[in-house]
């Protein structure tokens, strides 16, 4: 690099600035300073909010939200609910465990626990552990079983997609006092499809299978794929906020390869890249598959979503008050 090239490079760069703090400082004021922090994850958070606001304000954009079930066992469920309420996303793709935790927490409590615990003792006490969240047995499997026993007769003789099943669950949750805390209730209210590619991998899926032994209940996942195909082939622009990897993330990027890839992407993960897993794969890898456009705006933010998303959502709320979701259903 010549001296002139070096000087031209430095002229294009912004200087690193120190964070400045004051009493009663807002989250938005803090996030805005991340634009000049220089490193490391904080700068990525700023890039993420820029991409998301650009995505949410684009009226043409069909927006996807994907996430795993684990975070729905935590208070971060409230951040997901807030984004659904405000119409930020048009399609949700998640796992069966999201149905499980969303139903269970509508009726019963989960509890703050800790990681370093004797799991044999918890098992004897009939308490499940999800990370550092403690879940009494009766507050999970048993309450889901009771709920599904009430719901399943309503869909007997029908063949439903998983998004139709999710809407039926949301409708059935309307009687729950805590319904406004529910992802599925808000999705039903806003008519947003919630697609579960791995529908049998959880308590709700098990109850479907068990009931089907003696009753006529069918889930047709190909109806989900048809909905996604119809949306993708009509979409001019697509964007995604993907929290964690696995089947939820892959289903989003898989379908977007059929429209030359996603145009805007924010991906939050704690996984490492070097093991070759999809969860660890950075967004740039999806460009090689055509699942993300070569011209896309994208960022991978490494970190715990219970922290990262809890910072991002308040900033979005202050900058995008409400959005009209696409009429997909």
Model regions low in confidence, pLDDT < 50 over at least 5 residues: none
**Structural class assignment:** alpha/beta
Summarize the main sheet.
Answer: 6 strands, parallel
Order of helices and strands: HHHEHEHEHEEHEHHEHEHEHEHEH
Discrete helix count? 14
- For the largest sheet, list the strands in their spatial order: 7-2-1-9-10-11
Judging by the overall fold, what is the CATH architecture of the largest domain?
A: 3-Layer(aba) Sandwich
What is the distance, rounded to the nearest whole angstrom, between the alpha carbons of the first and last residues?
Answer: 56 Å
**Tally of separate domains:** 2
How much of the polypeptide forms β-strand, as a percent range?
A: 15-25%
**Mean of residue pLDDT?**
97
Q: What is the CATH superfamily label of the largest domain?
A: Deoxyhypusine synthase
Determine the oligomeric state from the structure. single chain
**CATH level-1 class of the largest domain:** Alpha Beta
Nearest-angstrom radius of gyration? 21 Å
Q: Give a count of the beta strands, DSSP E runs of length 2 or more.
A: 11
Features of the shown structure:
329 residues, alpha/beta, Deoxyhypusine Synthase, 46% helix, globular
């Amino acid at each position: 690099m010549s001296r002139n090239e070096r000087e031209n490079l430095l002229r294009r760069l912004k200087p690193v600035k120190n964070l400045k703090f004051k009493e009663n400082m807002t989250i938005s004021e803090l996030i805005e300073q991340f634009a000049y922090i220089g490193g490391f994850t904080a700068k990525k958070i700023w890039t993420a909010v820029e991409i998301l606001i650009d995505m949410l304000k684009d009226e043409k954009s069909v927006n996807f939200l994907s996430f795993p079930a684990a975070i729905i066992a935590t208070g971060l469920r409230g951040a997901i609910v807030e984004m659904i309420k405000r119409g930020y996303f048009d399609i949700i793709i998640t796992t069966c465990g999201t149905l499980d935790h969303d139903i269970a927490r509508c009726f019963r409590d989960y509890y703050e626990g800790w990681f370093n615990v004797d799991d044999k003792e918890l098992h004897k006490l009939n308490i499940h552990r999800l990370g550092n969240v403690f879940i009494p047995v009766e507050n999970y499997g048993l309450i889901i079983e009771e709920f599904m026993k009430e719901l399943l007769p309503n869909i007997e003789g029908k063949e439903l997609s998983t998004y139709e099943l999710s809407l039926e669950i949301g409708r059935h949750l309307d009687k729950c006092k805590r319904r406004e805390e529910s992802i599925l209730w808000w999705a039903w209210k806003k008519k947003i499809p919630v697609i579960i590619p791995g529908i049998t991998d959880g308590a709700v899926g098990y109850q479907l299978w068990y009931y089907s032994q003696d009753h006529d209940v069918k889930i047709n996942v190909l109806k989900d794929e048809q909905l996604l195909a119809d949306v993708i082939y009509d979409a001019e622009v697509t964007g995604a906020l993907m929290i964690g990897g696995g089947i939820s993330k892959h289903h989003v990027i898989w379908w977007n390869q059929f429209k030359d890839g996603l145009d805007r992407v924010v991906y939050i993960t704690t996984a490492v890249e070097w093991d070759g897993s999809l969860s660890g794969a950075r967004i740039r890898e999806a460009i090689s598959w055509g699942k993300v456009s070569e011209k896309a705006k994208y960022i991978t933010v490494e970190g715990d979503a219970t922290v990262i998303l809890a910072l991002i959502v308040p900033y979005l709320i202050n900058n995008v008050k409400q959005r009209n979701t696409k009429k997909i259903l």
